Amino acid sequence: MRRGLYIGRFQPYHLGHHTVIRQISADVDELIIAIGSAQRSHEPDNPFTAGERVLMVTRALSELCVKHYAIPVEDIQRNVLWASHVISMVPPFDVVYSNNPLVTRLFREAVVPVEHSPLFKRKEYSGTEIRRRMLSGEEWEHLVPGSVAAIINEVGGVERLRAVAAQDK
Ligand code: ATP
Ligand code: MG
User: Given 23, 24, 38, 152, which residue has the most CB atoms within 10 angstroms?
Assistant: First the structure.
């Protein structure tokens, strides 16, 4: 049994994540998706709640045939303890898939094997770019799985993002 871990904030979950996860699924029996900065929501860089992100990941991964667990993990503001914190919150795993340099460094220092995941269309498949498009009224729905676009529309995600990005000046 090989269980893998993939970590992101998923603000929102997009087709870059989905393409990587589809590839990783072929290498593992089970996949844990850790939803980072779980306590954050209603901020311009973190508009969605942990629960909404669990829904995005769960619906999107139901299209892929891999057994998975979506687990929110809060920040602890202490990088040196962060890998142990994540390990304490998720099921046991054998390998972490990441291309984030800090995530890679912290898990390697904790003696956890890390494999690099490839990047796909990083300019467009990017949380930052999708939030920018939502704010400016540009097309964004084609950059996320259809099930995720439906969840964002159900919760009024674009309207919320505009509200929390507004200034009282
Ligand atoms: P943000 O711009 O808000 O940081 P993001 O697109 O980087 O969003 P995260 O949730 O921060 O998404 O990333 C989770 C993981 O997914 C990171 O390891 C990140 O490098 C990876 N990732 C992000 N975009 C892509 C992509 N287009 N292709 C492959 N992996 C990606
Ligand atoms: Mg990122």
Answer: 152
Cβ–ligand 1 distance for 25 under 6 Å, the answer: no
Task: Please work out whether the CB of residue 99 comes within 6 Å of at least one atom of ligand 1.
Answer: yes
Q: Is the CB of 9 under 6 A from ligand 1?
A: yes
Distances (CA, A) of 169 to 19, 48, 132, 165, 166: 41, 24, 20, 12, 9
pTM to 2 decimal places? 0.96
Among all chains, which residue has been given the structure tokens 């699924």? 25
**Ligand 1 contacts CB of residue 119 (under 6 A):** yes
Spell out the per-residue pLDDT of the chain, length 169, in tens: 999 999 999 999 999 999 999 999 999 999 999 999 999 999 999 999 999 999 999 999 999 989 999 999 999 999 999 999 999 999 999 999 998 999 999 999 999 999 998 899 999 999 999 999 999 999 999 999 999 999 999 999 999 999 999 988 8
Ligand at shortest distance from the CA of 129: 1
- In the chain, where the domains are located: 3-164
DSSP H helices, the chain, are 15-25, 50-61, 79-89, 101-109, 127-136, 146-154, 157-165
User: Ligand 2 center to residue 153 CA distance, Å?
Assistant: 22
The ligand placed nearest to the CA atom of residue 36 is 1
- Ligand 1 centre distance from Cα of residue 124 (Å): 11
